[in-house]
């Protein structure tokens, strides 16, 4: 296996003087009273702010060979797939006239998030399972959480530490200042080591409103999940000062013993008040599961964020919830989500409950992974970088990065019996 080349511009960027990624004033995401201590992850990129470091932006400028993916002629998809879809147009028509895969909304918050998840599909009842946690009798979330069983909410330990359980209320609905339902708490069960708490509700919300719990992940996170897109959610601060529940699609950067991390690259991430909120992922069975809860992150709200893994605490959680339910029969749309997949040179995704696909090769295009917000789609330039930078990402077992010529490169680590993962801030993602 050849070693991945180092990029001079990237190396210089890390050596350049610049604003720190964080400072010592940031507390754990859920509390502003200083109870949780600093949460600065500036050590990862000590002298580099991704928002300011132009040397790291290696994406090609839009031109005739690498069109902007937001233009009407750059992204086109095929017709519906399935027994009720009817015959689709032929390939020659699809290349020009087919409906295009929708782009995520342009207005971003959480930081860099959206009101609806973009990487997976949640029903209205599942959306209601992402909740706010308020201390006292007033509405407005101080932290976030997830209804994982009919009367059990998963949240962060630092959100509940030192506060009686009966002082909390759980808020249901997008607007935490005007919730659809507020339910009291009768008991809190805090883990003795990890930053995780289970709250027992006074009443069963599923008998009062349309809400469907989102169970925890039954599998095991490992290095093969590095590069997988997850959806984080919460009621925390946004760059636009909007309130309420938001989602953000990000890729897993590293999986550690009890936690896993993401890195928003200075563009997106979780923030103060999002603590305890879920990290959601489509499980192999095709249903959406909670794989972690937001624990801490850098003060900039758009760099490194850490989540407590729930798979390592499954026995602790199930001591209160009972056995985690097995996935029901899930349709193809749930498995794909809007992120979709490349199956050979066919891009497939779910759009408004319908599986759609486009044969990229028949249109002279290549099926590529274009980042956490866009997912898999056809593109006329097989070397197009898009959101990909030099640090790269893992696309399954394949390490992909953008080289000094603004061209996509990749290497399948499986060829050497290895997996793809994050190496360090200089090399980025590669075989290990």
List its traits:
432 residues, mainly beta, Thrombin, subunit H, six-stranded antiparallel beta barrel, six-stranded antiparallel barrel, 6 helices, 8% helix, globular
Question: What would your notes on this structure say?
Answer:
With 432 residues, this protein is mostly beta strands. The chain has two domains: 58-105 and 332-431, no CATH class; 106-331, Thrombin, subunit H, CATH 2.40.10. Helices cover 8% and strands 29% of the residues. It has helices at 8-15, 91-97, 124-127, 157-160, 314-321, 332-336; strands at residues 80-81, 130-135, 143-149, 152-155, 168-172, 181-190, 197-201, 229-234, 246-255, 259-263, 278-282, 288-297, 304-309, 341-343, 346-351, 354-359, 366-369, 376-379, 393-395, 398-402, 408-412, 420-424, 428-431. Strand 3 and strand 4 form a beta hairpin.
